[in-house]
Amino acid sequence: MLTLRSHADVQAEHDRAVEQLEAGPSPALNPRLARHEHAAMSAARDSLAWVLGYTDTAPWTHRVLPNPTAPDVFSEWAKAETVNHNSALMREDEYRWWYGSAVEHALSWARGADTSPPASPYGY
Asked: Taking the CB of residue 48, how many other CB atoms lie within 10 A of it?
């Protein structure tokens, strides 16, 4: 099992996602990509807030898991990871699919399994 990133690293990335959400989408993005960016930054914010203990509710499954441990984060990551293989969800609710994929990425990063920060535009 991987070790979670430091609180400071997770906090900095959470803050970056919040800043990007507050700034809004880049005017250069077409509406579809703007929704994609919003889903990704919302997922990064929600996932990292949960990892930091700011919310008790896991971002993808909505399970109540306060102050998640590394095994809790792995469990939520594993459940979110399945969205990447759910083409039906992609067709039915593209925003939810993007959100789930970005939750998977943010939790993968928080676990130290991914080096691409989740709040980087198109870093997923």
From this structure: 28
